[in-house]
Specification:
single chain, mainly beta, 7-stranded mixed sheet, 4-stranded antiparallel sheet, globular
Amino acid sequence: QVRLVESGGGLVQPGGSLRLSCAASGSIFRVNAMGWYRQAPGKQRELVADITSGGSTNYADSVKGRFTISRDNSKNLVYLQMNSLKPEDTATYYCKLVKDYGRGYWGQGTQVTVSS
C-alpha cells in the first residue's frame, strides 16, 4: 500500500507564496510519476503539475511560470512551490502517485486559500 501525506497549505494574500510538500511511504517502487492536482468547489479535479521518475515536468497552462514542482527521491518527497498566487488558485490540492503499471494513489488533500 502507498500512503501520501500533504502539508503546507494555508491562507495567503494574492501575490504571496506557499510551498506544498507530499511525503510518500509504503510500497514506493515502480513509480512512474508523482503530481499535484487541485479541486475548487463545484469544479472538477485538474492537474496542476507532475514530474516523472526521470525528472521530466509538466504544468497546467494556468500555473506555468508561477509554480515549480520538484522531488527529493532520497526522502520520497515531492514539492510544489507556488509563487504569485491568485484568488483563482484557491482549491484543495492533492498529491498523486502513479505506478508504472497505471495504478494511482491519492493523498487526503491540503487546502490553499488565496484571499486578502
